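Exam revision sheet. Question 4 asks you to relate a sequence to its structure. Input first:
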Amino acid sequence: MTTKIMQKFTSEEYNKMFVTSDTHFGHNKEFIYKDRGYNNVEEMNDSMINIINNTVGTDGILLHLGDFCLNTTTEQYNNLVRSIKVKAIWMLWGNHNSPIQQFYGVNSQQINGYNGNIMIRYLQYYYTFGCDSKQFVCFHYPIVAWNGQNGGSMHLCGHSHGKYPTSRPEHTQGKILDCGWDVHQRPLSMLEIESIMSQKKIA
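Answer key, structure tokens:
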């Protein structure tokens, strides 16, 4: 696991960031798409893309905390990304990384999308960022201890699809949040994340 120095954002940059996880684009299993209320994986893919586009916007950054897609070809992956009308997608690795990690590794890339080039930035496994006094630690998996935890640093994660009680929005002990699709059904803005975290106590 590679640890990165905390990236600092201006308020303008920070307010353009939205966070999600575990979209599982292309995961053709009923326990994924049917549990989300869809009839098939194609319907799920199209719906999630529309929700992302309407939520994040063409000037926004989508921070994805892992398991973006599953069992897709490189061409299918590129077509998915081209359909997402945002300025940039920043991705952490999860436990389902095919085929992205195999082909792209740690290298950023640009894909020609509907609104010009979309910058895809691969953040590896662990990413930290902040704005003013706010600090965030991002990792696909929920963890019980993270850097700055006792000082109010907030942990953003995914992986559990809402089934890990400690990382659910309503759990108030510890500033940790599952940002996964199955919990929120859309990406969250940083202001929404702050609002949820304000109800949680430092453990």
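Marking note for examiners. The helical segments are 11-14, 30-33, 41-56, 74-83, 100-104, 181-184, 190-197.
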